[in-house]
Amino acid sequence: MNIQTLQSQLDNKQPRDILKTIYTQLDDLAISFSGAEDVILIDMACKLGLKPNVFTLDTGRLHPETYQFIQTVMDHYKIKITVLSPNQDALQALTHEKGLYSFYQDGHKECCGIRKVQPLKQHLTAYSGWITGQRRDQSKATRDSLNIAEIDTAFSGKNTELLKFNPLCHWTSEQVWSYIRALEVPFNPLHNQGFISIGCEPCTRATLPHQDPREGRWWWEAAESKECGLHSSLSKPR
Ligand code: SF4
């Protein structure tokens, strides 16, 4: 599939129409659900009757509220969500060698690699495209040049290209929350406690109004490091 053609088809469309268009062109798509406000992708897909394949990464370190929210979403939309777990041998080796909080000392990449990146990589081999809730306004440092459609060079196979779609790319936080409130979409109760960007419990904290949402993630690391490896490849249209 030509990514430039796809880009021009999707460029001026709203998220709902982006979903409609890409599901017309591809039948092996997966939606990744982080347990946060990206729930609106599930809402839109279900209301379009798309019967989406949805997965989420259970790192084992999520907030109790997030686990409960994931179940709420399954029940609310009457869908199954594939819950991906880390490789137990790799995880055990890490915690045996470095304990449970090594990321505070030597950075989050190793732990995120085992708990998020590897399970994701394995799961995505079954798909030719995945859909994420990423938006440009989530981080000036790492998401400012996000595109609606990209080739994901980090997770593409040797002989296959993986497409990544970010239908909410150009939406603001205000638009997302207007949608959630207007359509009474379920949301993670942590948002009511000042959490904007929600990840694992030890690596997420609430932020103040007007702070960059990513400042609540891995706050002990530099701004440009605040990606967990899931979206490290900002592949450009070509
Ligand atoms: Fe580990 Fe923190 Fe990454 Fe979660 S966000 S996988 S706890 S380093």
From TrEMBL:
<comment type="similarity">
    <text>Belongs to the PAPS reductase family. CysH subfamily.</text>
</comment>
<dbReference type="Pfam" id="PF01507">
    <property type="entry name" value="PAPS_reduct"/>
</dbReference>
<dbReference type="GO" id="GO:0043866">
    <property type="term" value="F:adenylyl-sulfate reductase (thioredoxin) activity"/>
</dbReference>
<keyword id="KW-0408">Iron</keyword>
<dbReference type="GO" id="GO:0046872">
    <property type="term" value="F:metal ion binding"/>
</dbReference>
<feature type="binding site">
    <location>
        <position position="203"/>
    </location>
    <ligand>
        <name>[4Fe-4S] cluster</name>
    </ligand>
</feature>
<feature type="active site" description="Nucleophile; cysteine thiosulfonate intermediate">
    <location>
        <position position="228"/>
    </location>
</feature>
<feature type="binding site">
    <location>
        <position position="200"/>
    </location>
    <ligand>
        <name>[4Fe-4S] cluster</name>
    </ligand>
</feature>
<dbReference type="InterPro" id="IPR011798">
    <property type="entry name" value="APS_reductase"/>
</dbReference>
<keyword id="KW-0560">Oxidoreductase</keyword>
<keyword id="KW-0479">Metal-binding</keyword>
<dbReference type="GO" id="GO:0070814">
    <property type="term" value="P:hydrogen sulfide biosynthetic process"/>
</dbReference>
<feature type="binding site">
    <location>
        <position position="112"/>
    </location>
    <ligand>
        <name>[4Fe-4S] cluster</name>
    </ligand>
</feature>
<keyword id="KW-0411">Iron-sulfur</keyword>
<comment type="pathway">
    <text>Sulfur metabolism; hydrogen sulfide biosynthesis; sulfite from sulfate.</text>
</comment>
<dbReference type="InterPro" id="IPR014729">
    <property type="entry name" value="Rossmann-like_a/b/a_fold"/>
</dbReference>
<feature type="domain" description="Phosphoadenosine phosphosulphate reductase">
    <location>
        <begin position="29"/>
        <end position="206"/>
    </location>
</feature>
<keyword id="KW-0963">Cytoplasm</keyword>
<protein>
    <recommendedName>
        <fullName>Adenosine 5'-phosphosulfate reductase</fullName>
        <ecNumber>1.8.4.10</ecNumber>
    </recommendedName>
</protein>
<dbReference type="GO" id="GO:0004604">
    <property type="term" value="F:phosphoadenylyl-sulfate reductase (thioredoxin) activity"/>
</dbReference>
<feature type="binding site">
    <location>
        <position position="111"/>
    </location>
    <ligand>
        <name>[4Fe-4S] cluster</name>
    </ligand>
</feature>
<dbReference type="GO" id="GO:0051539">
    <property type="term" value="F:4 iron, 4 sulfur cluster binding"/>
</dbReference>
<dbReference type="GO" id="GO:0019379">
    <property type="term" value="P:sulfate assimilation, phosphoadenylyl sulfate reduction by phosphoadenylyl-sulfate reductase (thioredoxin)"/>
</dbReference>
<dbReference type="GO" id="GO:0005737">
    <property type="term" value="C:cytoplasm"/>
</dbReference>
<dbReference type="GO" id="GO:0019344">
    <property type="term" value="P:cysteine biosynthetic process"/>
</dbReference>
<comment type="function">
    <text>Catalyzes the formation of sulfite from adenosine 5'-phosphosulfate (APS) using thioredoxin as an electron donor.</text>
</comment>
<dbReference type="InterPro" id="IPR002500">
    <property type="entry name" value="PAPS_reduct_dom"/>
</dbReference>
<dbReference type="InterPro" id="IPR004511">
    <property type="entry name" value="PAPS/APS_Rdtase"/>
</dbReference>
